[in-house]
Structures are given as structure tokens and as C-alpha cells.
Amino acid sequence: MFEDLIYVLTKYDTWLWQGFLLTLQLLAVSVVFGTLIAIPLAVARVSKLVWVQALPFAFIYVFRGTPLIAQLFMMYYGCGQLIANIEGIQDHWSWTYLRDPYWYCLLTFVLNTAAYMAEIMRGGIQNVPNGEIEAARACGMRPATIYRRIIFPRMWQIIWPAYTNDVIFTLKATSLASTVTMMELTGAARKIVARTALPYEAFISAGVIYLIIVYVLTFGFKGIEKYLRRNENRKENKSVLAKAGGHI
Amino acid sequence: MKNWIKVATAAAVGVALSASAASAAWEKVVIATEGAYPPFNYVDKDGKLQGFDVDFAVKLCETAGIECEIVAQDWDGIIPGLLAKKYDAIIAQMSITEERKRSIDFTNYYSTTPAVFVGKEGMSVEAWKDGAVVEDALDGLVIGVQRSTTHSAFLEDNFPNAEIRMYDTQDNALLDLTAGRIDATLADSGVLVEWVKSDEGKGYAFVSDTFAPKEFFGEGAGIGIRKEDQDLKEILNKALAEMLANGSYQEINKKYFEEINLHPN
């Protein structure tokens, strides 16, 4: 068993390494762009105007309500097929990109992540204490300024643990990319199994790499959480809080 | 002590088996097939066994000059049934593998479905020529293949410059072929021949010769027999060689697969 593990790790190290890089890439892009899309979605979602919040609601509902693998297949085989059938598209310069599974994969992951994150952010925004917003308004801040200075910083504090959780979730979701021919970490492990008939060794190798990624992520996110909550830990702040009777 | 008993019993059984085998002299042989693997073996609407394997078995017995009875047996129990002497041979597209060889023996291979490339009509992919890999034949092409198959291993090992896409099913690879996202796919010709003829496969064709190098795709299917029946193995091997030589094998081959040579090596 141990020798087989060494064998898998040394003989197929390039497959695992390439899988690892692709997994990281899919994760990073999904999280960054997912977050960027999620912010306006969340803001629209808390709007009191029905027509503003209807579209983000529908988007979030659909992407959270269907299995990721179904979305991936819809995007890759469904939309891909439609695009491929456009007259002349296969001779167009853009076809090099449009035929590549990478972009379909990324788009699906980005949209899926955005839907989940938007929902987390909506909860965060709605949980910002009303008094703080009223205080900001009393100071004469405009809505945009209130968002920038009060709501968003508070939202990040509130949602950070859930956000971290979602990033780890996205990491595991990337393992579905191998179903549309992207050989990320899980895909690489599967390939090794097909070659060596050593399922334990191959999946343990991949599993350990996932664990390392999660360890580094949690460590980094913990650090950011500390930074976000830096004000809460200051002594003077605590005393202010105490004087105000905790009602801030 | 116990070991002695085991050895003694084994020896006794061995003697008894070889004695019965010799006395049977193979005037009548019962052959099992699965009956659920069209077009190789299947049950038609009248309940009769049909297919390539069945025709082949009938002709084989005729050539060997022995009387045969063909029975249907579920796949899961097909080796235990042979060992329990319910029948004497298995002709059911059973691939010759090392694992099976531990419990039963095989004749020489009698059929193999070779691999073939399918792509747009008019293109040509000669990745295997004159018994050797043509290493640059796939350069610049995107080739789809089902993962965890001998075909995917063949592509990965021999064509470092080709872009190889691994699909979870062959159906998905074919979907992407029609979408133009891959240039060609490599798979079992027995599967692809039907697809090329279908509506979805319009405009696509075999774009290479069929090929089945043993070192990559295995030995093919053999006739399964009990290990002790070496005399039957000899009889069947001889009849098989005769069928291949006199063209009766090719006749049955053509009847079921016009484009594919099931015995290329």
C-alpha cells in the first residue's frame, strides 16, 4: 500500500501537479469573479422595489435550486451545441475559444458561486444593525457613501465565516470539471486509477492535496477575519461599548 | 495431516476429471452464450438464439465434426456454470484476461472489435500504419476519447503532441464531435459503425483503417473452456484455423459487420 502510494506520487506527479494547478485556477477565478458579480446582485436583492429585486431573485433561485452538474452540462453541451450551430461560427476566429471547454466551465462556476455568495451577502447586508445606518444618515451620508463606509465593511465582518465556507465549497465543486474533459485534480486521480488500478492510492493522493489547499485557505481566511474584526478587539472600543451599554 | 487429505482429494478429482474428459471424446459439446449482447448474441422475437457468436459456434462445430447444442446463460453465472459442467465451452465475446485465466482456459482469440477514428467525411487520420504508431499523425488535432479505456491509454502513451479530451461516456464525445469541438474520436468500431449510419452521424465517417494491436487493446475474445479440457481446446483451435483459412469465418463476419474485420491479426 505504502509503496503503491509512492509509486503513484512519483510516476504520475506531472498529472497531479497539472491537476492541482487547474483546480487552483478554476477556484481563484470562480471566487474572484463570483464575488464581483455577487455584490451588485446582493444590493439589488435587498431593494424594496419589486422590479429591481425580481431578476437577481430569479437568477439566485435557479442557480441554487439546480444541481451544479446539470448546469455544467447545460452550459457545455447545451449552449455549446447552440453556438456550434451558428452559421459560419466554426470558421470565425472566436471559435478557438468557443470550442474550448475551459470557458464554459469557468462561466458555470462563476455564475454558480455568484448565486451562493449573493445570498450570503444579502443576509449580511440585512443584518447590519439599523442604528448604524440611521446614524450614518443622521451624519448626512448619501446612500452610496453609507454602503461604502458602513454597510459593506460591516457586511464583510458578518459574512466572513460563511464566505470562507463557500470558498471551500467552490473548491470541491471544481472536481466536476472533469466530467466535461477538464483534467483537474479529481480528473487526474481518475486517470491514474484507469492506468494503475490503484484506486485507494490515487484518490488518497488527490484527497491529501485537497486537504492541503483547504488548510492553507482556512489559515489565510482566518488571518483576514482577524483583520476584519480588528476594531472589536481594541481595548478602547470595548470600553466605549461598555459605556454605551452595548447598544451600538 | 489435513493438507495430505486435500492433496489426495485434489489428485483423485483430477484423475476422475481427466478420465471423464477422455471418455467423452467430444462427440457432443454444449456451448453457452449470453444472449443479451446484440449483434454478437441475442434472443430473437421467436425466442431463438441469434447473432455472430451463435452462427460462429454452429459453423465451428460443423467444421470440427462434432454435434453441438447452444444454450443461453446469464453473464454473471457463465464461468461458474462452465466449472459446474453445465456446458463445455463459452462463446460469448468473453475477453481473454489474466484474471479469468486463473479459473478457466481460453482457445486462441476468435474475434476482436478493432478501434477506428471517426471524423468529418474526407479527412484522414492514419495514426496506426503497417503495424506501428505514426507519432505525428495527430499533431494539431483535438481528439476525443472515453476515459478509462484502452483507447485513451493508447492515445496518451503514443501521441504527446495531440490534444486529447477525456469524456465520461462515448456518447458525450460524439456530441462534441458533431458540435465541432473535437476533430475526431477514437473508439470501438463496433459501436461507431452504428453511429456513422445514424442520422446524428451524417457527414461523419471512418477516417482511418480499423486496427487492433494486441499490445494496446488486449487479445480479444476467446472461447472459454475448463482448464483440464486441453483436448477440446486443441479441437476448437484447429477448427477455428480451418474456418479462417477456408473463408467461412469471413462469411459470417461480413453478415454482421460489413466494414469491420473481426480477426485482423
TrEMBL record, chain A:
Pfam families recorded: BPD_transp_1 (PF00528)
Protein topology in the membrane: Multi-pass membrane protein
Gene Ontology CC entries for this record: ATP-binding cassette (ABC) transporter complex
Biological-process GO terms, alphabetical: amino acid transport
PROSITE patterns (alphabetical): ABC_TM1
Membrane-spanning segments: 20-43, 55-77, 101-118, 202-221
Record domain ABC transmembrane type-1: where: 20-221
InterPro entries the record matches: AA_ABC_transptr_permease_3TM (IPR010065), ArtM/GltK/GlnP/TcyL/YhdX-like (IPR043429), MetI-like (IPR000515), MetI-like_sf (IPR035906)
Subcellular location: Cell inner membrane; Cell membrane
Keyword field: Cell inner membrane, Cell membrane, Membrane, Transmembrane, Transmembrane helix, Transport
Annotated GO MF terms: transmembrane transporter activity
Family: Belongs to the binding-protein-dependent transport system permease family. HisMQ subfamily.
PANTHER family to which the protein is assigned, alphabetical: ARGININE ABC TRANSPORTER PERMEASE PROTEIN ARTM (PTHR30614:SF10), MEMBRANE COMPONENT OF AMINO ACID ABC TRANSPORTER (PTHR30614)
Name by which UniProt lists this protein: ABC transporter permease
Organism field: Thalassospira xianhensis MCCC 1A02616
Automatic annotation (TrEMBL), chain B:
InterPro entries: SBP_3_CS, Solute-binding_3/MltF_N
Annotated Solute-binding protein family 3/N-terminal domain residues: 28-260
One Pfam family, short name: SBP_bac_3
Keyword tRNA processing in annotation: no
Record localization: Cell envelope
Gene Ontology CC annotations of this record: cell envelope
Predominant localisation class: other
This protein's record includes keyword Secreted: no
SUPFAM superfamilies according to UniProt: Periplasmic binding protein-like II
Transmembrane segments: none
Cleaved signal peptide residues: 1-24
PROSITE patterns in the record: SBP_BACTERIAL_3
Alphabetical keyword list: Signal
Family, per entry: Belongs to the bacterial solute-binding protein 3 family.
Protein name: Nickel transporter
